[in-house]
Amino acid sequence: MLSDHDMVAALSLFSFGLFLKAQEGGTPSTGSDTLLLFSGMLSGITLLLSYASIIWVVSFTLYAAWVIRNLRKVIDLLAGAVFPWTLLAWYHWICFGSVWANASTYQYEIFQGKEMLLFGMFGLPQFDVMIKLLFSSYRGLFFTSPVLALSCIGFWLMATRYKKHAEVALFAAIFIGFLLMNSSFNHWQSGWSIGSRYLIPALPFLSLPLTLVFERLPRTTLAGAAISAMIMLLVTAVDPQPPEGVQNPLAHHILTLAQGKTLFSTFGNAHIKGPVSANPMGVYESWFRPVFPPGTLQGQWNSFNLGEFLWPASFASLFPLLCVLVVGLGILWHWSRVPSRIIREP
């Protein structure tokens, strides 16, 4: 959905990948210095996108300093972040008159509460909220993406078999940090959404350990991945923004609409009709209703997929997307087989 969480997750993963590439061989080189510079730059950009990514920035910087143990290389990494951080300071100065002021200080009143301890939005982490963020049908991460529950096995393998203690500490710090942040936020449920939206930046670092689980339990991992992918594909195809008050969005919103039924939303007095592209808001959020009265053609096409030009309002419209996914998976499978084939060749 092009939310900042998705971009932070992608850039964090790319930054981590470049850092690992820079460490290959273990010998200093001009190339590794450049990779560290770009790694730091991508890491710094995440802070431009979301203040919450400070969790990633601090965790990654401490991890990198521990792994490198070379002051000059740590400076190379931090130098890459100077430009995006300078842009952020300039943005604060232009908008708020001080580099230390931030947008959260002037947050929309609906997100602020006098009982909160930080920025009017964050209090103490709530254990019951953590449980809901991980396991509930309302916002549970492992409910909508069950394969991620296998990550605990991956963490155990990383720590015991592969002795990757620094990486275990990094991945755990990122996940726990975002979980604590989300559970202390006064709007932890993240509005019209499905799943734990504010935990998305941590998902790459729950996913990486799954490679080790797949090595040991390929069928279990594939089954979990297939179920998770089908849930997410269904959610994306039908409506990734179920109303906030729906306590089981998957069963009571997504699956209902997928059957071609119509639901009534008191928010905007809108009828939401399945089976696909049911979201009536598009990019208009709360003011879609006065802009598009019920029954207008424009309102019906506020969300759609390209296949609907051939098969409107039908699951058949997903056929082009499924073809792309199959081709992409085939290419990935081919690439995954190339190294082993090269090793066997004389």
Task: Write structural notes for this entry.
The chain is mainly alpha-helical. The chain folds into four domains: 1-106; 122-234 and 242-258, no CATH class; 259-304, no CATH class; 306-346. Helix content is 58%, strand content 2%. It contains 15 helices and two strands. The protein has helices at residues 4-22, 30-49, 54-68, 71-96, 127-135, 141-144, 151-160, 165-184, 203-207, 210-216, 218-238, 249-258, 288-291, 297-300, 319-344, and strands at 262-265, 270-273. It has a two-stranded antiparallel sheet with strand order 1-2. Strand 1 (262-265) and strand 2 form a beta hairpin. Helix 5 (127-135) packs across helix 8. The radius of gyration is 22 Å and the shape is globular. The N and C termini lie far apart (47 Å).
Summarize the structure.
The chain has helices spanning 4-22, 30-49, 54-68, 71-96, 127-135, 141-144, 151-160, 165-184, 203-207, 210-216, 218-238, 249-258, 288-291, 297-300, 319-344; strands spanning 262-265, 270-273. By secondary structure, the protein is mostly helical. Strands 1-2 form a two-stranded antiparallel ribbon.
Task: Lay out the secondary structure.
Layout: H1 4-22, H2 30-49, H3 54-68, H4 71-96, H5 127-135, H6 141-144, H7 151-160, H8 165-184, H9 203-207, H10 210-216, H11 218-238, H12 249-258, E1 262-265, E2 270-273, H13 288-291, H14 297-300, H15 319-344
Antiparallel strand pairs: 1-2
Helix pairs in contact: 1-2, 2-3, 2-4, 3-4, 3-8, 5-8, 7-10, 10-11, 11-12
